[in-house]
Amino acid sequence: MNWTLRLAWEDDIPAIEKLIPLSVRSLQAAYYSPAQMEAALGPVFDVDRQLILDGTYFAADLQGRIIGCGGWSKRRSLFGGSKGRKADEGQLDPVSDPARIRAFFVHPDFARQGIGRAILRACEEAIITAGFQKAELVATLAGEPLYAACGYLVVERYEIVMTGGLGMPVVRMSKQLRKRN
Questions:
Q1: What is the pLDDT of residues 52-62, one digit of tens each?
Q2: Which of 1, 13, 68, 103 could join 115 via S-S bond, C-beta 3.0 to 4.6 A?
Q3: What is the pTM assigned to this prediction?
């Protein structure tokens, strides 16, 4: 497959907005109920425009079509989109704070073909270049196996509380990063 990995642009936002619910409703279906997925679309699963503006969000592009995306952040939020977030969430200190791995989504037709792993590798390289020594993320139950296979360790399991009294089980994970040779 001849997809390329590049930084996402603001012009990609409409395509990413279409990709997210498609990815969630298909790839998360074995782990979460339809009600949980629908409640999470928006507050948990949404475009984080700040990642795109910061130049830390990647897009897997197949002939002009976004088939995957994901990124990292030097900001405090662990998950969620731009909507409803404070304007200034503060920046992390690379010396003492872990960078955040954020907002990974893959088109179901291209799942388990190395796109998520390639995006994660690009994020880790950028994180190291930015001076961070550790990365942290909040994984869905569907995403946990990928992150575990890439060396992320479970820190805690908890539920994100959503509307309608619904909870969404997730896994906070972290990894010490080292420069690759």
A1: 999 999 999 99
A2: 68
A3: 0.91
